[in-house]
Amino acid sequence: LGSTLNVAKLAKGSWVVVFRLGAVGLGTVEEARLPCASRIIGVDVDSARFEQAKKFGVTEFVNPKDYDKPVQEVTVEMTDGGVGRSIECTGNINAMISAFECVHDVCY
């Protein structure tokens, strides 16, 4: 909650990518929805989590295993340049790099 509301400082209409849709990721999604994020892309290697994540506010899903290119390239293409904020909930260094690389300052 603190990182999503206080650090990310999402504005109405924000585009957000959340990496991993476990308990922490779903809480993050719900908190991103509160300030009216208009687009929330969930990234997870477990496609079974996607239906549950919809209930929390995820609008689109990406399973990195479904692509032959890095997930950050997929999300940048989906958003025509990147998202305003990306929140990584895995603790994995590669996910951190991907999360960083899918952000663009002006995308909405």
From TrEMBL:
<keyword id="KW-0862">Zinc</keyword>
<dbReference type="GO" id="GO:0046294">
    <property type="term" value="P:formaldehyde catabolic process"/>
</dbReference>
<keyword id="KW-0479">Metal-binding</keyword>
<dbReference type="GO" id="GO:0004022">
    <property type="term" value="F:alcohol dehydrogenase (NAD+) activity"/>
</dbReference>
<dbReference type="GO" id="GO:0051903">
    <property type="term" value="F:S-(hydroxymethyl)glutathione dehydrogenase [NAD(P)+] activity"/>
</dbReference>
<feature type="domain" description="Alcohol dehydrogenase-like C-terminal">
    <location>
        <begin position="23"/>
        <end position="104"/>
    </location>
</feature>
<protein>
    <recommendedName>
        <fullName>alcohol dehydrogenase</fullName>
        <ecNumber>1.1.1.1</ecNumber>
    </recommendedName>
</protein>
<dbReference type="GO" id="GO:0008270">
    <property type="term" value="F:zinc ion binding"/>
</dbReference>
<dbReference type="InterPro" id="IPR036291">
    <property type="entry name" value="NAD(P)-bd_dom_sf"/>
</dbReference>
<dbReference type="Pfam" id="PF00107">
    <property type="entry name" value="ADH_zinc_N"/>
</dbReference>
<keyword id="KW-0963">Cytoplasm</keyword>
<dbReference type="GO" id="GO:0005829">
    <property type="term" value="C:cytosol"/>
</dbReference>
<comment type="subunit">
    <text>Homodimer.</text>
</comment>
<keyword id="KW-0520">NAD</keyword>
<dbReference type="InterPro" id="IPR013149">
    <property type="entry name" value="ADH-like_C"/>
</dbReference>
<comment type="similarity">
    <text>Belongs to the zinc-containing alcohol dehydrogenase family.</text>
</comment>
